[in-house]
Design a protein that fits this description.
This protein is α+β, with helices and mostly antiparallel strands and about 120 residues long. The protein has two helices and five strands. The chain has two domains: about 55 residues, no CATH class; about 60 residues, Nucleic acid-binding proteins (OB fold (Dihydrolipoamide Acetyltransferase, E2P)), CATH 2.40.50. The chain is about 45% helix and about 25% strand. Helix 1 runs antiparallel to helix 2. The longest helix is centred in the first third of the chain and has 27 residues.
Length: about 120
């Protein structure tokens, strides 16, 4: 889902609540329709104006091992097929792809995939 879609979907409940409140104020207190529509318009306009400032908060970012894809690291243990690698100064559990040759300890590797807390690496 696109970021802009996610942002506006989160705004809809606020708009609906505002519409209900101004409708009730119109019914109970005789609030003029133009004032009710202006209040609703200001609330919607506020959300449109603030979107560029809040866009990053609504973006989905890769987390955990997925953030490391493309980075280089060093094999701490021989990877045959699993072991541990250092990437960005952190120790990660890693494995090589099925059928790939074993990677000796101390060899530079590149992260090709990340799933949960395990990396898939290849010889760099």
């Amino acid at each position: 889902m696109r970021t802009v879609t996610r942002y506006y979907l989160f705004q809809i409940p606020g708009w609906a609540l505002t519409a209900v409140l101004v409708t009730l104020l119109h019914a109970w207190l005789g609030l003029p329709v133009w004032v009710a529509l202006t209040v609703l318009g200001v609330v919607v306009l506020k959300d449109v104006i603030f979107y560029p400032l809040l866009r990053r908060a609504y973006q989905l970012e890769a987390s955990g091992a997925a953030q490391l894809v493309g980075l280089r690291g060093v094999a701490r243990d021989p990877l045959d097929p699993t072991g541990y690698v250092y990437v960005r100064g952190e120790l990660w559990r890693a494995h090589i792809e099925p059928g790939a040759a074993a990677i000796p300890a101390g060899t530079e590797v590149r992260v090709i995939r990340g799933h949960r807390m395990t990396l898939t690496v290849a010889k760099d």
